Amino acid sequence: MKKQYLLAPGPTPVPPRVLQAMSLPIIHHRAPAYKEVFEDVREGLKYLFQTQQEVLLFAASGTGAMEGAVANLFSAGDKVITVNGGKFGERWGQITNTFGLEVITVDVPWGQAVEPRRIADLLAENDDVRGVFIQASETSTGVAHPVREIAELVREREDTIIVVDAITGVGVFALPLDAWGLDVVVTGSQKALMLPPGLAFAALSEKAWKFNATSTLPRYYFDFAKELKNALKGQNAYTPAVSLVIGLREVLAMIREEGLENVFARHERLATATRAGVQALGLDLYAPDAPSNAVTAVCVPAGVDGQDVVKTLRTTYGVTIAGGQDQAKGKIIRLAHLGYVDDLDVITGLGALEMALMDLGYDLNERSAVRAAQMILRRK
Amino acid sequence: MKKQYLLAPGPTPVPPRVLQAMSLPIIHHRAPAYKEVFEDVREGLKYLFQTQQEVLLFAASGTGAMEGAVANLFSAGDKVITVNGGKFGERWGQITNTFGLEVITVDVPWGQAVEPRRIADLLAENDDVRGVFIQASETSTGVAHPVREIAELVREREDTIIVVDAITGVGVFALPLDAWGLDVVVTGSQKALMLPPGLAFAALSEKAWKFNATSTLPRYYFDFAKELKNALKGQNAYTPAVSLVIGLREVLAMIREEGLENVFARHERLATATRAGVQALGLDLYAPDAPSNAVTAVCVPAGVDGQDVVKTLRTTYGVTIAGGQDQAKGKIIRLAHLGYVDDLDVITGLGALEMALMDLGYDLNERSAVRAAQMILRRK
Questions:
Q1: Which of A36, A191, A235, B41 has the largest count of CB atoms under 10 Å?
Q2: What is the DSSP track for A325-352?
Q3: How far is B78 from chain A (nearest CA, A)?
Q4: Are A239 and B63 in contact (CB < 8 Å)?
Q5: What ipTM score was computed for the predicted complex, to two decimals?
Q6: Given this model, what pLDDT does residue A243 score?
């Protein structure tokens, strides 16, 4: 017997009650039974995105909604800024280039957040910037970018919108669309939403909808206006991923039961405990100055290969975490703590990590990640 | 207690063994456990599509793969022919127009198949036609278009490909990609594949891959070349819909166990029995000359509204079928018999239909759809 534990930054574990709901016989997406589900989902998504706007739903993974945000709101030749401080920032650059936008890339060293000052300067120098593309949480480096500050810079400009990839942000920490004046927020199902992958989401401000009205790029499957029109009638433009939508109703109910503020506080607590734990082992955080509460990226000690840590955890202890990509390959490991994850999952992850590090010859030397985390997590 | 029966042309019922497989704890899409699943899936899809080519897989509904077939193989201004004899033929027109192709629309009266002669003439008159877009099975009308004959017309032309929406064709009747020289075949998960919606598929001939090499339309999420490159390494470009892929392995195993020829024969038998049944009631087939084995479209009798039939079946008898759309609204009903459907499901559907028609005042006058179907389905 070897139990499996999933502590990667997506897919994240799916709660049993959700697996159960999704395993009921399938229903037809034009039948009244589905409409009821979809009504609940629409309300729940507004609560989650903290908005009065409609949240659009697509059968796709998050990248589909990212593409939609470009194809529905801009036109070829539009000047935009993309923040590139990791794999997903790089993706904004790829998508905007694919669709023929004129892209100013703000390169940020991996593990660091972008300085709002750099965006402010570029906006000042370029009257004609129409969009700023950023990650709320750059999953590849464990960095949380200062979305709120950058949204404030954009807010005062009539012809500029901020487009936020919040795939590991929504449901992890506060990103209130209406209150912060975020223009586009996209996410996916397999992160804090605790579902299998296969659903993508996009919510737009009124300002962003005005951009949609003048955008001329081609889109069909990810047609935001068509999807909005259908959503207001209680249906989807194309066949939705019915079983995932049924699971979605369940997770949105769970989030509402817990309360969004409590959900954010839980993620904050788990992230704090994880960081304290790995630091207690003498390991450095990869993103010490702006760590995301979704995932903690940790520098592996000299002499240890990060890929070996990932492999040992998986094969010896049944724990799936993520390693580093590209320039961070072998240098970092990423411990996720988002979604259906609680205090003792952090203890599990850190406990397994300690054993794997010992197995790989790292001398823990009486240090304990578990104990450091316990001091944050204990309840009395 | 009211049991629910799903006899609509998608989503179709999901076998219990598949629901069970999909309700296991989620696995990570970069972990070895997923790679094993994906290897099986790749093999199974080649068997299903009757091809040596790789079959690409997307987290999307079928329309996503349709868009991909346009965006990956053509360039703005390319001249193409679309066959428009129903809602899905219309969709080929919408997508090709959206991407700026020069579209020759072949309008076909609803309920009829396109005559290959018309395509032959257009091809003769237009040396520069690069693509012919068609449905194998036009779900909105219950028509099967003569894909094989049209593929033969296209096959001899070096610079023309045939693009087949086989969303209710693959796994219903023979559409051997290699043997017939089909260039692109797309389908979705929620039809003969017996899965919830959320997966789309596309397979390409070598000739179609050459079109991909010169196509300049923008695509990112549905990037066929990128997906192929990843598939050959045993992975997906973007996060796949893991739970659906796990279900897919199960249904592909079921199809292989039954044997593709037997699967086709079963659909043929169920369709024949359904047609015989409704005709025995004195009802006309909507597509008498070229009926699809996926779904039978039936003209409702004078004085009866098709929408009332659909509603009575659903609310009184718990049976979900489909009505007509647009010009066929209220005039037809559509009884599906594809996917996880067997002989007695046809008896169930026809038995319920008889009761609904009586409830709506139609005099059956001793006629029996059930008996007519039984004469085809009985096993001795």
A1: A191
A2: -GGGTTTEEEEE--SS--HHHHHHHHHH
A3: 15
A4: yes
A5: 0.93
A6: 97
